[in-house]
Specification:
The complex is a heterodimer.
Chain A: H1 3-8, H2 15-34, E1 42-43, E2 49-52, H3 63-70, E3 76-81, E4 88-92, H4 95-105, H5 116-123, E5 131-134, H6 136-141, E6 153-156, H7 162-171, H8 192-198, E7 199-201, E8 206-210, E9 214-215, E10 220-221, H9 233-244, E11 254-260, E12 267-270, E13 281-286, E14 290-295, E15 301-306, E16 311-314, H10 316-320, E17 323-326, E18 331-335, E19 344-348, E20 352-358, H11 374-379, H12 392-416, H13 423-430, E21 437-441, E22 456-461, H14 464-472, E23 477-479, E24 492-498, H15 507-519, E25 521-532, H16 536-541, H17 543-548, E26 581-589, E27 607-615, H18 621-627, E28 632-640, E29 643-650
Parallel strand pairs in A: 21-22, 21-24, 22-23, 24-25
Antiparallel strand pairs in A: 1-5, 2-4, 2-5, 3-4, 6-16, 7-8, 8-11, 9-10, 11-20, 12-17, 13-16, 13-20, 14-15, 14-17, 18-19, 25-29, 26-27, 28-29
Helix pairs in contact in A: 12-14
Chain B: H1 3-6, E1 23-31, H2 38-45, H3 50-59, H4 78-90, E2 91-99, E3 106-110, E4 113-114
Classes of the chains: A alpha+beta, B alpha+beta.
Family (chain B): Belongs to the TRM112 family.
Protein name (chain B): Multifunctional methyltransferase subunit TRM112-like protein
Keywords (chain B): Cytoplasm, Nucleus
Chain lengths: 653, 124
């Protein structure tokens, strides 16, 4: 029954067909009104793309429903759903499939499908889908717009009846919408000590916890401290229904009830901590609708209206990767439920209560989204995570993500832990002639910049956070990359490069870095280089050796010495490394970050874990690297506090 | 950034034959007192590119009467050493730009710190 046919055979149309045609034409007009992208063009000819004018998010239609109804007529290649729009666009692989779907679905009463998936559609007032073909070109350009539901999000309308809504609210002792106050006389079996944590006036909402307290500071629960109040028995049938319907796999053991008053603030975007909860997290919206915002790490943002008495199911990508939150607003733009075809209306927010059910996780999370997963981030240092890049590009990207970005994030904390210069390095600097020009490559917070005031010290670092700290301390610093030192060749008399080269992730890059250090030296210039040693455990065992080597003076005999400049008392940490290329955790204390100042004062929640990439050196490795550079000689080579160290002399330009 | 540091700086923009000397555009200059050490300045004189120092100081309006040519036997001329001391160590560019002379790429100086990262690594 495509448009062409209709135009030619108008006379033969029966009453039902005329009605469908009217709806179809109306759908065209609606499309014009909503045509945000100006790219949706209705076609008179069959095409692969169908406009479902009353099949959009704005009408409460889900991707799942569309897949279930339309999937039976062919291979669906794409579904475009726009937030708050009543229509959606569905593409098939072939025109034949699309035509088949058109012929079987357009204006056909949905009741004919007698499918559990579409049952609620009928309930919500949508009797039949109105379809139009769309011209080809736009669908291709919008393929990647990704404006549908987040993968793994399900929204089931009218999941509870009004009566059940009342019962649920009463089961937790809260007011219903009809204004009857029912007090905490119901069988939550609370004891006084729990009540405080169960019911707490947060700044912008009223909240109650059952089973475990959900902590908004960490988005987690304290698994060792279950509450006396478990999920109220009167809520349990809902849990059973959700399990029976297949929306959740595990019976929930944690419930958070939130009351949002009109005009109050929302809830900041967050992901429920992976290690704390199982996959499916479900939330019932009672008393009023709300628009929830979902954000993908790539910046995509999708706003979805959660109608009153609907059930939101977040699983998979939606639960693990997308954050969700509610923007503080007084109004939400939603599609009016009473007119499925068109009306976008502005609704004032009113009192809303949400019931969020979760299942506590007792085993490590092994989801597919390691970068958002606290369990897997914790395991990263042991995992085989791309620590052996093949190309320069991969290496640069690894270093950016696991070295430079990390130092920028932890700069203030890192600086706070780097106070006193190490004696061997300080001695190297004090032994240099007065007026020497010295470059500190990877100067960090500048702890060596001020050791010898008779030198002209210039520092440089790849972390803007760290060079800023140096700048504030009045040191002369440059933000730059060790592989491209922005200095003239032979500009300096000496340089130090402490704990830097081990952050480069290929041998080639490490050699290039060392060459850069040498390039900026004049002939006879001298360089001191420190890199982390693999053999830290071994040194730990070798305590005798360390005790005997207490001299911190430089020897100038040119012999390779193995000299621990240590007082015999180790204040520094020895580490055990299982391999050479790895990620090393840094426990960042949020106290140092003003952004988190107002967040919870609980000590456990104040730590953020970061990982820095290291290539830890084997004993001979640094020496071999230096030998690969033909214009230097190794003046000294030694071990100091978990580092392999060399002093090099530049012998020619 | 002091002019002594500027004297050593260059850029490594790919394809640009020479990044030296960088053109200095100063939007904000601060003057900071640094203890005068004649021995130190004498040593610096043998290390700096005087012409670059002179042109740069002139360009940002802080020439402080230093001569265009470095004269012989200036080591004992305290007045000269003090002037050089001022130009080398006491003039600091707080805000401005460094410009590669061949590629014309601009590097920002912000809060006294030049950002010499080339485009490809600075995306972080």
């Amino acid at each position: 029954m495509d448009c062409n046919v209709q135009n030619n055979e108008r006379i033969k149309l029966n009453k039902a067909q005329k009605k469908a045609l009217r709806k179809q034409q109306r759908a065209k007009r609606i499309l014009d009104r909503h045509n945000v992208l100006n790219e949706f063009k209705v076609s008179d000819q069959p095409s692969r793309h169908l406009l479902i004018s009353n099949g959009g998010l704005g009408c409460g239609i889900t991707r799942t429903i569309l897949t279930s109804v339309f999937g039976r007529y062919g291979q669906i290649t794409n579904i475009i759903m726009l937030p708050d729009k009543p229509f959606s666009v569905l593409s098939y692989q072939t025109v034949t499939d699309a035509k088949q779907a058109y012929d079987n679905i357009h204006a056909i009463e949905l009741i004919a499908f007698c499918d559990t998936d579409v049952k609620y559609l009928v309930k919500s007032g949508i009797k039949a889908f109105i379809l139009n073909y769309l011209e080809d070109y736009f669908c291709e350009t919008n393929k990647d717009s990704n404006l549908g539901y987040p993968e793994g999000l399900l929204l089931i309308q009218n999941y509870v009846s009004e009566q059940e809504e009342d019962e649920l609210l009463q089961s937790i002792g809260w007011y219903t919408n009809h204004g009857q106050a029912s007090h905490d006389t119901h069988p939550c079996q609370t004891v006084q000590s729990d009540r405080e944590s169960m019911q707490r006036r947060l700044k912008h909402r009223h909240v109650k916890h059952y089973g475990y307290e959900f902590r908004y500071d960490t988005n987690t629960v304290d698994k060792d401290k279950p509450l006396h109040a478990t999920i109220p028995s009167k809520c349990r049938y809902i849990c059973q229904r959700m399990t029976d319907d297949g929306y959740i796999q595990h019976q929930p053991d944690q419930l958070t009830v939130n009351e949002y008053m009109p005009g109050q603030a929302g809830i900041p975007p967050h992901i429920d901590t992976h290690s704390a909860f199982q996959d499916q997290i479900v939330s019932l919206s009672l008393l009023s609708q709300i628009v929830m915002d979902f954000r993908h790490p790539d910046g995509t943002r999708i706003s979805i209206n959660l109608p009153r008495r609907s059930l939101l199911v977040m699983s998979g990508e939606c639960r693990y990767l997308w954050s969700h939150g509610i923007t503080p607003r007084k109004y939400d733009v939603v599609c009016d439920d009473n007119d499925n075809n068109s009306n976008i209306t502005l609704l004032e927010r009113s009192r809303r209560v949400s019931f969020t059910f979760r299942k506590i996780r007792h085993s490590p999370c092994n989801c597919k989204y390691p970068n958002s997963c606290d369990t897997q981030l914790n395991l990263l240092s042991k995992a085989e995570v791309n620590c052996n890049p093949c190309t320069d590009k991969e290496a640069a990207s690894l270093e950016r993500e696991y070295v430079y970005n990390i130092y920028d994030n932890i700069a203030d904390h890192f600086s706070g832990t780097r106070h006193s210069p190490w004696p061997v390095i300080a001695n190297f600097l004090t032994s240099l002639p007065e007026g020497s020009m010295v470059l500190d490559i990877g100067c960090g917070n500048g702890k060596y910049m001020n050791v010898n005031k008779s030198l002209y010290m210039v520092g440089c670092d790849r972390s803007s956070g760290l060079v800023s700290i140096c700048g504030e301390r009045g040191f002369e610093v440059i933000l730059c990359d060790i592989l491209n030192l922005p200095f003239q060749s032979q500009a300096f008399d000496a340089c130090i490069c402490i704990a830097v080269i081990h952050h480069l992730s290929t041998t080639k890059r490490r050699i290039e870095a060392l060459k850069e250090c040498i390039r900026i030296l004049r002939r006879d210039g001298v360089a001191l280089v420190y890199v982390w040693a693999l053999e830290q455990d071994q040194r730990n065992i070798d305590k005798e050796k360390m005790k005997h080597n207490t001299s911190a003076n430089l020897s100038t005999d040119g012999v390779l010495t193995n000299r621990e400049a240590d007082t015999g008392v180790r204040k520094f940490k020895l580490r055990h490394f299982e391999k050479q290329d790895l990620l090393v955790p840094w426990h960042y204390n949020n106290r140092h970050n003003k952004k988190f100042e107002n967040v919870a004062n609980n000590s456990a929640s104040n730590q953020t874990l970061y990982h820095r990439y290291y290539h830890v050196f084997m004993e001979s490795e640094l020496i071999s690297m230096c030998k690969a550079i033909n214009n230097v000689t190794i003046r000294e080579s030694f071990y100091d506090r978990g580092n392999w160290c060399v002093i090099l002399n530049k012998i020619s330009d | 950034m002091r002019l002594l540091t500027h004297n050593m700086l260059t850029s490594h923009v790919k394809g640009a034959e020479s990044g030296y000397p960088l053109i200095l555009e100063a939007a904000e200059v601060i003057l900071r007192n640094v203890d005068f050490n004649p021995e130190f300045i004498k040593r610096m004189l043998s290390k700096v590119n005087w012409d670059v120092l002179y042109q740069t100081a002139k360009a940002i309006g802080h020439l402080n009467d230093i001569p265009e040519q470095l004269q012989p036997n200036v080591e004992n001329d305290e007045e000269f050493l003090r002037k050089a001391h001022h130009v080398l160590l006491e003039v600091e560019v707080k805000e401005g730009h460094l410009i590669c002379p061949t590629s014309k790429k601009k590097f920002q100086i912000s809060n006294g710190i030049p950002n010499m990262l080339l485009g490809e690594e600075s995306s972080s």
